[in-house]
Design goal:
This protein is mainly alpha-helical and 259 residues long. α1 packs antiparallel against α6 and α3 packs across α9.
């Protein structure tokens, strides 16, 4: 039951964020979106370092000077995996006019949800692999550390849920209920990915350092490919940078204080 609640925490963050569509009349302002995207970037980068890459190297300490190999190899594999997903899944980023991936006849709103869903996969994997490490009673991954990661991702999922549901209503003339459902469903892949990762925990344990860094690489891909460019669009401002700093510091505090 403890693990179930841990896996659902990030999804709860997305759901609460999507619920903003019931309380706010219009889409979030440009500066607010930039700040939230920067904040999400900071959380994900800090989580990748403290919750995933450092534990990966700690678990590989017996390799001596080669302890970096699983961390480096897994990180590159995670980035390559998301690069492949970007090529084979049709999706549309917020504010973009042209969809990415193979041509299809899907609605714009559907492809917007697919874009967010796509980059929620590595977040779910990250939570799942950390909880898998906790269940394996690994000394480098405590229950507190696993929950710190889940809470950190939930915090950055809250604005993400709002960023997807509010434009769905404003730009696609959806009802509030449908826009909320679209925002909420974009996050449902996280507990699914986390649960599937835990199901494979017996297979993961021997190669846990690789899977920790794989999740980190996938998350960093999302930050570099999507979040930071979107936070930097339009007129130059430091809003996104400030958001990044706040998100990074908050996730670092969560991981060190709770982990």
């Amino acid at each position: 039951m403890t693990v179930f609640f841990g896996l659902m925490i990030p999804f709860l963050g997305t759901t609460l964020g999507a619920a903003c569509v019931f309380f706010l009349k219009n889409a979030l302002g440009t500066n607010v979106q930039k700040a939230l995207l920067g904040f999400a970037s900071g959380v994900m980068v800090a989580a990748s370092v403290w919750s995933l890459l450092i534990p990966s190297m700690d678990l590989s300490a017996s390799m001596g000077r080669l302890a970096f190999v699983p961390a480096c190899g897994g990180l590159l594999a995670g980035m390559a995996f998301l690069l492949l997903m970007d090529r084979v899944i049709p999706h549309l980023h917020m504010g973009a006019e042209k969809a990415e991936g193979p041509s299809c006849s899907l609605k714009k709103s559907t492809m917007l949800v697919l874009a967010v869903t796509l980059h929620n996969i590595p977040e779910g994997m990250a939570v799942g692999v950390v909880f898998a490490g906790m269940l394996a009673e690994n000394a480098h991954i405590t229950t507190a550390a696993a929950f710190a990661l889940a809470i950190g991702i939930a915090i950055q999922n809250f604005p993400e849920g709002a960023i997807i549901s509010l434009p769905l209503k404003a730009e696609n003339d959806m009802s509030r209920g449908k826009a909320f459902l679209g925002g909420m469903l974009s996050g449902v892949v996280e507990p699914i990915a986390a649960f599937l990762t835990i199901l494979l925990s017996d297979l993961l344990t021997p190669v846990l350092p690789w899977f920790l860094s794989f999740a980190a690489g996938a998350m960093l891909y999302v930050v570099v490919e999507e979040l930071i460019p979107e936070a930097s669009e339009g007129e130059h401002s430091n809003i996104g940078t400030i958001g990044f700093a706040v998100g990074f510091a908050l996730m670092m505090v969560l991981d060190v204080a709770l982990g």
